[in-house]
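Async update (no meeting this week)

Hi team, since we skipped the sync, here's where things stand on the single-chain job. The sequence we agreed to prioritize is pasted below, unchanged from the tracker. I ran it this morning and attached the output directly underneath so nobody has to dig for it. Comments welcome in thread, and please keep replies under the output.
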Amino acid sequence: MPNLTEALTSDSKKSVVTDDCLALIDAEVADKGGFTGLAIKAGYRTVQGIKPGFVRQVVTDLLPEFAKALDPLYQEAKTAGGGVREYLTANSGRVADALLSITDEKAKRSKSGMVKGTYDKLRSSAKKNVEAAVPRLAAMIEKHAP
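Output:
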């Protein structure tokens, strides 16, 4: 059974998967409402404004680590015999924890005070927001790693 890192980061797929990740992030940010949504949208615009292509570069850089972190859940889904999308969605808390363990570590080591500050402000609601994004994420994974 292929692993998720190979499935999502091969030379033939990485660019398309990155594009799909960026579309997923844009859609998730656009869907956020209320006061928290305003903060998320402002934070996202701030991060995007650091330099052109910053978010794309971050996604490109983090994709292999995210895929590696999610691979155990992906393998469980494949072994269980159900759909990857259904399995990951049913385990959205574990998916969020796996992804956030990577971004927490990256934020800690960031040299940009603006990135650290923005991440710290949004971190308290991050798990809830990542969990909300899991159905889209799972559909994207299933598309590229059926």
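Quick observations from my side:
The chain has a mean pLDDT of 90.
The chain is about 85% helix and 0% strand.
Reply here if anything looks off.
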